[in-house]
Amino acid sequence: MFYQTTITLPIVRLQWLLSLLDTVETQAEVRGMSDTEILELRLAPNMFALVKQIQIATDNAKGMASRMAWKEAPKYDDNEVSFSDIRARLEKTITYLETFTEADFASAVTAEVRLPWFPDMMFVGEGYLTTYALPNFFFHVVSAYAILRSAGFDIGKWDYMGPGLALIPDVK
After folding, report:
1. Cα(54)–Cα(40) distance, rounded to whole angstroms?
2. What pTM did the predictor assign?
3. Can you give 15-81 as a three-state secondary structure string?
4. What angle do CA 59, 155, 32 make, to 5 degrees?
5. Residue 147 CB neighbour total at 10 angstroms
6. I need a labelling partner for 29 at 20 to 30 A (CA). Which of 5, 41, 63, 140 fits?
7. Helix, strand or coil for residue 166?
8. How far apart are CA 55 and CA 36, in angstroms?
9. Beta strands in 67-157 (DSSP E)
10. Domains of the chain from N-terminus onward
11. Mind listing the pLDDT tens digit for each residue in 82-110?
12. Per-residue pLDDT reduced to its tens digit, 101-140
């Protein structure tokens, strides 16, 4: 369970973000929008911009996997200013996640997670994953989608769902 939820699921969503960026970049060229304009889009004045949403989503993905596997996560500089930069960050995160094996999560059930924004508190194993890590990861992924959708890019639910559906042929 821990491997699928901390590795497989985030990889699929990060790959989806890469695909979504391709769609948006094509539409942005037609609209005459620069990378900077798009990466600085936000839903509300007090909400993080698109670039920060993607940075946090990648930080969440690598942090979640690392914490559950008792490993140190790599640190990234938050210096992306173009689609090329943000793609490289997404690809670097996917590559990092692909280094994990199911065996890395053998002790995930007892993983203790302490975060500085919850002083004198900790999460343990599945509680961290289900009540904080996954909801937080998806919040930033969905926020990235919502920012682009609200900016008028021609994307919809199926663009969000992406290619990761676990469909199999129905042989009735």
Report:
1. 11
2. 0.92
3. HHHHHHHHHHHHHHHHHCCCHHHHHCCCCCCCCCCHHHHHHHHHHHHHHHHHHHCCCCCCCCCCCCC
4. 90
5. 24
6. 140
7. coil
8. 15
9. 112-113, 123-124
10. 2-161 (1.20.120.450)
11. 999 999 999 999 999 999 999 999 999 99
12. 999 999 999 999 999 999 999 999 999 999 999 999 999 9
Distance CA 3, CA 146 (A): 28
Token reading at 26 = 């094509």
C-beta separation of 140 from 130 below 8 A: no
The Cα–Cα gap between 12 and 106 comes to 22
Instruction: Take residue 106 and report the two structure tokens written for it.
Output: 């053998």
Q: Dig out the tokens for 114 from the structure.
A: 């302490």
